Amino acid sequence: MNKSALTLFMLMLPAMIFAQAIPDYPAKKIAGHTYVIHGPIGLPSPKNKGFMNNPVFTITDKGVVVIDPGSSLYTGQMVLRQIRKLTDKPVTHVLSTHVHGDHWLGNHAFSETFPNAIFMGHPDMISQAKAGADKQWLRILSTMTEGATDGTKAVIPDKVVDEAFSFKAGGMHFRILAPKFAHSGTDIMIHIIEDKVLVLGDNVMHERIGRLDDGTFRGNINACDVAIKSGAKVYVPGHGPSGDVNVVKKYQRYLATVYETVKQLMDEGLSDYEMKPKIVAKLKPYQHWNGFEDEVGKHISLAVLEAEKAMFD
Asked: What is the pLDDT of residues 15-36, one digit of tens each?
């Protein structure tokens, strides 16, 4: 690079960095020590620059535990800015709820700033990421955001956590729930015991209908049962507003309505495209949810395949 080109690049660099930065979203206190940053509802796009999940953090006596810091280096940096408005304690743990990169590629920001932090995830999440899901998600997010996430590196968790694993950090207790075959097959939910908060990952969404290509209806319905029985008071979905147990129950009703109606209509000899109008009519409370039109037909087809398979299990 010649001198004039280098000078031009250096002049442009601040603008390039600013263009990728995620604007600040407020951290909402939902319990004594725990906060959530509710991202906009929708798919990754140039407008939201890939930020559309719900990062969570808990401030303990000795540090900060972060869950799902988002889709990119820049989302992670935004989450860190919100943490810094509340505390100067170090981040000690970063947990990833599942393999879908819109939730965990923000790990990059925390690995740079806190190299001694412990990065935690389900064993299948870790193995899939190492097998190529990391690169796949980097490509997906770059494409969907038209390059707004470029520069992000995949920092894969290296501490395995699974069902009934628990740990203590700065006087707070965190219990892992990992029902099988749920949203992605790589899922964990995190119960923050003292605050009675359950971070659901994408096992539950609220006001948004998302993909179920990697999971199962029966497994996801069971995950909702596990969440309901946890005794939590505040539930944080992977996307959409947090709330009480009704957040879980409403999403579970969606899943159960699709799956049980599909089984009934299969017995009547209907094909998936013939089922769709009847099932959509039963889903009136969800028709305004973001992604409904895009996903409901896919969900019906997936439910048919799952119900057919269940007949031979």
From this structure: 344 457 999 999 999 999 999 9
Expressed as residue numbers, the domain containing 103 is: 11-248
| Contacting residues for 271 by C-beta, under 8 A, at least 6 apart | none
Q: Which residue has the tokens 């939201």?
A: 48
Q: Per the structure, how many domains does the chain have? A: 1
Burial of residue 106 (number of CB atoms within 10 Å: 0-12, 13-18, 19+): buried
pLDDT digits (tens, 9 = 90+) for 175-190: 999 999 999 999 999 9
Q: How far apart are CA 38 and CA 26, in angstroms?
A: 8
Instruction: Report the alpha-carbon distance of residue 295 to residue 118 in Å, rounded.
Output: 35
pTM: 0.93
Domain-embedded: residue 218: yes
Helices (H), the chain: 3-20, 73-84, 101-104, 107-113, 123-128, 134-144, 217-229, 246-267, 272-282, 292-310
